[in-house]
Design goal:
Elements: H1 2-8, E1 12-17, E2 24-26, E3 29-31, E4 40-43, H2 44-52, E5 56-59, H3 66-76, H4 90-100, H5 108-128, H6 145-196
Antiparallel strand pairs: 1-4, 1-5, 2-3
């Protein structure tokens, strides 16, 4: 989603500058100075801008390396495994880097496949979480922004239905209690009348 990609561009990435540059004053602070081959952290949007003008090379984050993603995929496929911890905008960052800086990412095609596998594993795990829903809370740690966004409509609908069922169950229980109370009252009244007017 464009909105999520926009937010992801504020995340920091590491670059290796190819030219000397002075400090840059940004709204969120100062970055630089840039001295090749010294690595520097900058916002993703700035890294992409510098990359387009051949002023830097982007260093792939550790979590975006082939071996790391392969291990994550294996872990996510375990039946009872929790969601692996990844950056909140990992899908958006990966998409931006693979689109604008593919030449800086080793084994980019394999990484694309692993990201797809990882996304599908986590998606099916999130959908299985529906079975564990209760009307009070849902706890799924380490979901990313895109994953939350994908399942939000489903969970909203499911929570609404659970609340309706809980309300219905509560109403039914109250009706049963009132009915039992009425039966008990009539029984006590019959006993009282019977003892007052013995036959």
């Amino acid at each position: 989603m464009p909105e999520l990609e926009y937010l992801a561009q504020c995340e920091s990435v590491t670059i290796v500058p190819l030219h000397r540059m002075d400090r840059l004053e940004l709204v969120r602070g100062t970055v630089g100075p840039f001295r090749p081959p010294q690595k520097t952290e900058v916002p993703l949007w700035l890294a992409i801008m510098l990359k387009r003008t051949n002023r830097c090379r982007i260093v792939a984050p550790e979590w975006l390396k082939y071996e790391h993603l392969r291990d994550l995929c294996r872990r996510e496929e375990q039946p009872d495994a929790l969601f692996a911890k990844l950056p909140f905008h990992y899908l958006e960052i990966a998409h931006i880097l693979l689109t604008h800086a593919e030449d800086d990412i080793v084994e980019s095609q394999g990484i694309r496949r692993l990201l797809q596998d990882l996304r599908e594993s986590r998606q099916s795990k999130a959908l299985r979480g529906v079975e564990l829903l209760n009307p009070l809370q849902l706890q799924m740690d380490n979901l990313s922004a895109a994953e939350i966004n994908e399942i939000r409509p489903l969970f909203k609908h499911t929570f609404d239905m659970l609340r309706q069922l809980e309300k219905l169950a509560s109403t039914t229980e109250q009706s049963q209690q009132q009915s039992q109370f009425a039966d008990q009252s009539y029984s006590e009244l019959d006993d009282a009348i019977g003892s007052s007017y013995p036959i």
